[in-house]
């Protein structure tokens, strides 16, 4: 870059009419979130939520590939390898932002076009109006990199119908528009070629009126037809039992799901299942985010996170060497340790009595 060139802002802000538009602007990285972007989004919400001239906040992603591919996991990998703690501060601010989005008083329209993974789900699926398109691929792929669903993902997936959320969490597989709506990750499907007109109209029109004008039936999904084996197999009490039920059920798709699960980090799988079951009991988003923060900080120190990111993103050999390598070698005591008080402190979302706090 030449000396006199200025790097484009990673989050673009503009207002028009009644709308404030927030655009994630790292298209070459599918708008992966950096710590600075998280802070910029939080500052934008501070600015617009109490502005009487702003009736709607609209989140979009620059480029053609997607809203957001997740957090900047290369930065997390570098931090973990160096023995740092910067990731703890990133997650703290990111999860506070997720909670903030969920409790916004101003309508928040998230345009979940294209790829929406991990942290991208966190800045969109907690919004009040969640738009997908025929191009959407929405998922929480964390078990494939030795991590655990976060950004409130375990809260969302724990509330999905039947065991569909468990299926998505353990396999890490993305879903299209219809299945995202079925699982409670999105609300409405709009044609991708009408998104520009729809978002422009929000500058003047009522949000729900605009949604009604542009919404179309989503392309047919897959999960509804698979609910029988999903709800049966994933209701088991352990990952080992789930895999056994999937392998022996008889449905080809169930066997394929088991084979996918067996490529994921065994530790991440067990911690993910425990996280989902605990999230169901916790109920509301804030205590689940507090739990996810403890788990994320614990996972940061585990060998599988560094190895998973290395295999999938750094070296791209797609051959992670998990430690331990087998589900049966992951001790229950080790899983419980992920839910203890981590080295990153807390988020401050809950008051001393467990009630919702005021930290933003």
Automatic annotation (TrEMBL):
Protein's GO biological process: L-valine catabolic process
Organism whose genome encodes this protein: Streptomyces qinzhouensis
InterPro entries for this protein: ClpP/crotonase-like_dom_sf, ECH_dom, HIBYL-CoA-H
Documented EC number(s): 3.1.2.4
Protein name: 3-hydroxyisobutyryl-CoA hydrolase
The keyword Isomerase is assigned to this record: yes
Catalysis performed (reactions): 3-hydroxy-2-methylpropanoyl-CoA + H2O = 3-hydroxy-2-methylpropanoate + CoA + H(+)
Superkingdom, natural source: Bacteria
Leading EC class: hydrolase
Pfam families for this protein: ECH_2
GO molecular function, one term: isomerase activity
Entries under PANTHER family matching the protein: 3-HYDROXYISOBUTYRYL-COA HYDROLASE, MITOCHONDRIAL (PTHR43176:SF3), 3-HYDROXYISOBUTYRYL-COA HYDROLASE-RELATED (PTHR43176)
Domain Enoyl-CoA hydratase/isomerase: 21-339
Keywords: Hydrolase, Isomerase
Ribosomal protein keyword on record: no
NCBIfam families xrefs: PRK05617.1
GO cellular component labels: cytosol
């Amino acid at each position: 870059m030449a000396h006199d060139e200025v790097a484009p802002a990673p989050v673009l802000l503009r207002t028009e009419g009644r709308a404030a538009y927030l655009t994630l602007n790292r298209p070459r990285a599918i708008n992966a979130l950096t710590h600075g972007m998280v802070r910029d989004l939080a500052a934008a919400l501070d600015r617009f939520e109490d502005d009487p001239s702003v009736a709607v906040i609209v989140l979009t992603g620059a480029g053609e590939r997607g809203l957001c591919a997740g957090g900047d996991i290369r930065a997390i990998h570098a931090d973990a390898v160096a023995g740092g703690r910067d990731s703890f501060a990133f997650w703290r601010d990111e999860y506070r932002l997720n909670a903030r989005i969920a409790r916004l008083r101003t309508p928040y329209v998230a345009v979940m076009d294209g790829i929406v993974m991990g942290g991208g789900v966190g800045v969109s699926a907690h919004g009040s109006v969640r738009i997908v398109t025929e191009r959407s691929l929405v998922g929480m792929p964390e078990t494939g990199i030795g991590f655990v669903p976060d950004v409130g993902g375990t809260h969302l997936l724990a509330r999905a119908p039947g065991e569909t959320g468990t299926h998505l969490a353990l396999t890490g597989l993305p879903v299209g528009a219809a299945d995202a709506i079925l699982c409670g990750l999105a609300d409405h499907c709009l044609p991708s070629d009408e998104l520009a007109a729809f978002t422009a109209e929000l500058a003047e029109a009522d949000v729900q009126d605009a949604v009604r004008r542009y919404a179309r039936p989503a392309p047919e999904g897959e999960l509804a037809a698979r609910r029988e084996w999903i709800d049966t197999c994933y209701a088991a009490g352990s990952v080992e039992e789930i895999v056994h039920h999937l392998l022996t059920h008889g449905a080809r798709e169930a066997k394929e799901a088991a084979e996918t699960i067996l490529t994921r980090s065994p530790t991440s799988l067990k911690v993910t299942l425990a996280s989902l079951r605990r999230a169901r009991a916790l109920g509301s988003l804030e205590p689940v985010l507090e739990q996810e923060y403890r788990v994320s900080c614990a996972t940061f120190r585990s060998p599988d996170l560094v190895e998973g990111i290395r295999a999938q993103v750094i070296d791209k050999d797609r051959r992670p060497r998990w430690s331990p390598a087998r589900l049966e070698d992951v001790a229950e005591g080790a899983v419980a340790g992920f839910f203890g008080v981590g080295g990153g402190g807390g988020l401050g979302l809950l008051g001393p009595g467990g009630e919702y706090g005021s930290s933003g």
